[in-house]
Amino acid sequence: MEQQTTTPEQEDVTNTELSLDEMYEASFRPFKERSVIEGEVVSIGKDRILVDIGYKSEGIVSIRELNEEELEALKVGDRMQVFIEQKEDHEGNLILSKEKADKMKVWESLEEAYRAETVVESRIIARIKGGMMVDIGVKAFLPGSQVNLHPVRDLDALIGKTFPMKIIKFNHQRGSIVVSRRVVLEEVRATKRQHTLASLEEGQLIEGMIKNITVYGAFIDLGGIDGLLHITDMSWGRVTHPAEVCVVGDKIQVIILKYDRETSRVSLGLKQRSADPWIHVGEKYPVGSRHQGKVVSLVDYGAFVELEPGIEGLVHVSEMSWTQEIRHPSKVLSVGNQIEISVLHVDQAGRKISLGLKQTEPNPWDLIQSKYVVGTTISGKVKSLTDFGAFVGLEEGIDGLIHISDMSWTKHVKHPSEIFKKGATTEAVVLKIDREKERLSLGYKQLIANPWDEFIPSRYEVGQTSKGRVSKVTDFGVFVELEGGVEGLIHVSEADLEGSARLEDHFSLNAEVTAKLIKVDTEERKIALSIREYRQDLERKQIETFNQTQEASAESSEGEHTS
To answer: I need a surface site. Which of 140, 248, 458, 493 has the fewest CB within 10 A?
Structure first.
C-alpha cells in the first residue's frame, strides 16, 4: 500500500485540534503591544477616534492627542499611524496612541540621522546646568562646549533661535540625545578653509571678520582660516592697543602681506591700503614751521599730537612752557585739544617728529636781561625753600634763586628757613642772569655792605678776648655770635673739654661764652675762637698776679727789717 506523505504545515493542522476562538485569536498575532501600526479612521467622536487596524475590534485614540489643526483636517477614511498601548482593556477595547506613534517616528528619524551623520534643525528652548536644552522633535542636550567654536559669554541670548546641529550621542532606551552645533561649524569652516587656501595670494585685498584681539594684534577670520593683523600694521601712526582700531565682530578689509602655504600662516596689513604718509613728511613739515594738531594721547613725559592721519609728533613736557616746570602734560593739555605747535626736529627714517608748544609764544627770557639789570634791587615773594636756597617769584613764571651762601655775610646759615619764610615778601640784588640755562641768581646779603671789608678787621684782632652767645652746636664745634652779628667758631679741640665729654653737654643755645680770638681770616671770612687759650691766659695772669703779690710782700718785709 502506497504511504501518503504530508508537509510540516499539514501535520501542524491535522495533528492539532484548534477551537474556533483559538483560530480567530491566532490570526491577530502580528499585532504586538507597544508597536506602531497604520490604521484607518472609521469614526470621529466627541472624546475619541475609532481606528481600524485589522484587529477583531477597533482601537481607541483619545481626541486630546490631536491639536485643533489636526482635528480640523482629519476625516473618516484617513490613514493614521498609531501606537498599540495594550490589546484590550477590561471592556474589550483596543487602546491606541497617535502621540506616541508620532514620537516613535521622530525617534526613528533621529536615529537614522545619527547613523547617517546628517544635520537636524534644533531650536534652543532653555538654559540648563552645563549647557542648553534644545527641541529636535524631542528634547535633547546641547553641552556648553558644543554651542560654538569659541566660548559663548551670553548663552541666554541664544534661547529661541534655531541652528543646524548634529547628533553626537543617541540612546533610545534611556531617552537621551546629545547634539552639537560646533561639529557643524567645524565642517563649514573646513570647507571654507579649503576654498580660502586655494584662492589666497600675497597682495590680495580680502574681507574678513575680527575674531579676537590681543595686546600685539587682532586675528581676522578670512573664511575658515585666521590671519594676524599685527599692531604695527594697523596704522602709519602710533597705536597703543589694537582695541583702538579693531572691534570684535566687525568686518574689515585687509591686504595679505605674507602667506606661508606650508604652515598656513597669514600676515595681514591694514595701513598698507593707503600710501605711506611719512614719505614726504620732511617737505610737508619743515623745522620751524607751525601747524594745527590734535592731542591724541598723554604720557608721563609728554603729549602725542596728530598732524594728519598716520602722522603724530611728540611734545615733550620740557617744550610746553618757557617759565613753568610741567610735571605732567595733563596740567596743560587734554586729549582732544586742538593746539598750535612748532616743528622742532624731523626724523623721517625713525618716523619721529619733535614738536614744541612753548615755541608758538615769545620767550620771556629774551626780555629778562633788559628788565632785570645785574646790580639792581628787586622785590618778590618767597615761593619755596630748599636745602640750598630760596626761590623768589619776580613775575609769572620767572623765579630767582637766593643761594644759601648769599644769605648772610657773617652767619653760618644751615637752612634758608633760618632767614626766610615761605610767602613773605623780601628784597634781593640781581647777581647774574644765565639766558641759556634760564636761571636768575639773587643775593640777600648784598643788600648791605660787606662787614669783612672794614668793620670786622678793625673791630676784631687776634689775641683779644671777646664775649658772645652760643648760636649753634655741631659735632665739630660751637658757633658763637659776637658783637655786630658776626659768628666765630670754637673748634672742638679748642673747647677745653675733659676726657670724652661732649659739646652739647657743656654748651646750650644763647648761653654766654668768653673766648680768645686766635684767627681772623678776611679772605675765608672766618673767625676762630679758643676757650682753652683763654683759660691758659687767665691762669698765666693769675700766676703773674700771685707772683707780683709775693714779690711786693717780700720787699715790704725787707724794708721793715732794715729799719
So the answer is: 458
